[in-house]
Amino acid sequence: MRKILGSTLAFVYLLFPMSLVLLILIFTPLMFFSDVSTIRTSGFAGPDTALSMIGLSGFVIGLSLLVPPLRRIYGVFPWLYPFVKIFFVGMIILNIAISILNVGYQTGSETRHTLFFILMVVFVVLGRLGMSFYFYRNPVLEEGEEA
Amino acid sequence: MRENQKDLRKRIERAKEKSKHAAQMNAYEENQAEDELGNDEVQQGKGRQIFEQGNVQDGGPNDKGQVFHGKKLKGMKRVGYLAIAIGVVAMFFTDTATVDTSESARNALENQVSTGISAGVVLLEEDENLGAQDYTITHSSDADETKIWVWDYAAEDGDYVQVLVNGTPISESFMIQHQPKEIMVPSTGFVQIKGIRDGGGGITYAVRYDLNGTSYFNTAPEGEFNTYELVRE
Asked: pTM of the full predicted structure?
């Protein structure tokens, strides 16, 4: 009985909050360049949703990893754990980058725009390098393990 | 005699193997009980199967991902706690300005002017066009300059304004937010607030003058001005 309840809970969790978070994780990198382009061409800051995106994703992913019945999702979809781990870190980096650009474009100054654009690029490069180094030192998959 | 000794040795070896096996099984089940509280029904009878399959070391799920254990489980929990912590920090810093629904706030919205409202107060959840107004502010301040605070009293939706004094911009255009922006202006002359960009629903802003302690709730059409004439008595 408990097994059925656990599985149902995991299924429902996967359907609602988890699939939404997975979409956020997939679309954040895809939308990044168009978001930057929109801000650069309009000259105005875009909507700043970085913190709410990171907050929501953090909660949903954290619960799915800490609550035992929800953790079953990762057993049924073995690729999901490495995916979530890598894309969550990537999403944080890109959202903070967009926030940096937004801060720069909150004031209508060309110098400030250019400065914050450079800051954003530097942050993304350093963030991705840091992420690569971390996952090099702590591989998502152990040697010989399959996703 | 020798046969008896051999038989005895075999029995001892078998007993040793059995006790070793039982100890390993107990250790495994205890570990599982600690790691998977509330999931024991799933575990029953599977420990032996997993152990026999030699699957204990890799930490992977036993079948269809019912359980993770060992190093992998610890790693997942660590990532889980980290994700929750990041979520809490992010939520803590998210702008959650609450709309002021007090009597003085309602009066301020109705009259578009208030002396009882401090800078940064939010009066509306969504932008609402109150109509553009110009004001003449008569004061008795001796100071040459005075502070003004400009903020968005409705939705923080990306409205931009620019402050001009006697027709000359004294600042770059900036996005108005709930957090007030402080600017110094002369205490006499014409202070104009120009609507630069409408983020949606009209450029709703509030401006508070330090010299008379009064806040003005106004709407600036895109590309047009609201003028505040400052006159010393």
From this structure: 0.78
Q: Can you tell me the distance from the alpha carbon of B204 to that of B153, in angstroms, rounded to the nearest whole number? A: 7
Residue A106, min C-alpha distance to chain B (Å): 5
In this complex, how many residue pairs, one in chain A and one in chain B, have their CB atoms less than 8 Å apart? 127
Report the pLDDT value the prediction gives residue B72, as an integer from 0 to 100.
Answer: 81
Phi, psi (degrees; rounded to nearest 5) at A15: -65, -50
Query: What is the ipTM score, two decimals?
Result: 0.90
End-to-end CA distance of chain B: 127
Asked if A58 lies within 8 A of B88 by C-beta distance, the reply is yes
Sequence-distant (≥ 6) Cβ neighbours of residue A92 within 8 angstroms = A54, B86
Nearest to B130, CA basis, from B227, B217, B225: B217
| A44 touches B: beta carbon within 8 Å | yes
Burial-class residue B193 by CB neighbours within 10 Å (0-12, 13-18, 19+).
buried
Q: Work out whether the CA dihedral B9, B15, B18, B23 comes out positive or negative.
A: negative
